[in-house]
Specification:
By secondary structure, the protein is α+β, with helices and mostly antiparallel strands. It has 6 helices and 6 strands, in the order H-H-H-E-E-H-E-E-H-E-E-H. The chain starts with a helix and ends with a helix.
Length: about 160
């Protein structure tokens, strides 16, 4: 009985990975206005899917909900560079004290920008919190805050 349970767990894991890959493909092709839409598209492709399984899968693959629906995180998009994707999402920057930077983004893009900043290992960033259209970025000091602002502004001018 132990062997059968192990095999079923392995089969379930493979099905989840196949479903996640199918979700990535659907997101890449633009079929992602809602989780319900994704469930329907997955079923058309022969995958077993519920709203709760799709919700977990979206989180696992790093997808984000935007005003237009779901999209993959910038590191998973193949059509454009991560820097270009991020600079297109940033609207404005505001200093809020010596260690806090408020980054205004397009609606639904703040979590994507915060994740990018988390993963870029920029020196001096202590942490980021992304809401819907605002990212709060804490820096270790005013010098690192100014350096980050200058870097972001430089990247926006270049794009």
């Amino acid at each position: 009985m132990h062997i059968i349970i192990q095999i079923n767990v392995l089969n379930t894991m493979n099905l989840q990975e196949y479903r996640k890959q199918a979700i990535r493909e659907l997101l890449h092709d633009g079929f992602a206005t809602s989780q319900k839409c994704l469930v329907e598209e997955l079923k058309k492709k022969g995958h077993v899917a519920t709203q709760s399984s799709v919700s977990r899968d979206l989180k696992d693959i790093g997808a984000f909900k935007t005003i237009d629906g779901y999209t993959l995180g910038i590191e998973q998009q193949k059509d454009s560079s991560p820097i270009q994707s991020i600079t297109d999402l940033i609207i404005d920057l505001h200093i809020a004290g010596p260690n806090l930077l408020v980054i205004k983004t397009r609606i639904g893009a703040a979590q994507q920008v915060a994740l990018f900043l988390d993963e870029c290992d920029y020196p001096g960033i202590v942490g980021n919190i992304g809401g819907d259209d605002t990212v709060f970025t804490a820096t270790s000091n005013k010098i690192n805050q100014r350096s980050l602002i200058d870097s972001i502004k430089f990247l926006i001018k270049r794009s």
